[in-house]
Specification:
- The chain is elongated.
- 76% of the residues lie in helices and 0% in strands.
- The longest helix is centred in the middle third of the chain and has 19 residues.
- By secondary structure, it is an all-alpha fold.
- It has nine helices and no strands.
Amino acid sequence: MTPFIIFCATYLVMAIGRLPGFRVDRAGAAIIGATLLIASKALSIQQAYGAIDYDTIVLLFGMMIVVAHLRVSGFFTLVSAWVVEHAHRPIVLLAAIVFVSGFFSAFFVNDTMCLVLTPLVLDITRRLRRNPIPYLLAVAMAANIGSTATITGNPQNMMIGIFSGIG
């Protein structure tokens, strides 16, 4: 297999989100693609290790630890209870979710905020007997928008910052 075919196949699976007929998601596709590049001698082990941006991985890991501690401490449950108590109209709840998701995604990695806020939004919408779909879409869109504000908002910003000498 040529490196170009391996790259295109990996990119296709990542664009689709999974490998049809197999239990392979995006992360699995990336690992399989990297393994095939090494096995086909398109990349050496040293080049593969050199392609890993450890600063970004450590920053992502650190952000996930901070968010995990906030979750364990009950911070997000407290926010959820406050929102349920104060957001009596659907538009108010939607605005609150957009604000919280966008604001926190500027400081914590947007993927992490989506993972944390999704169960909270599902809990809130279930307790308020509302359709969760618009609110979940709001989480995703606001997280993406908010993440563009800072260098820590998403991995792409981190890599741009590191390569430009900012980070």
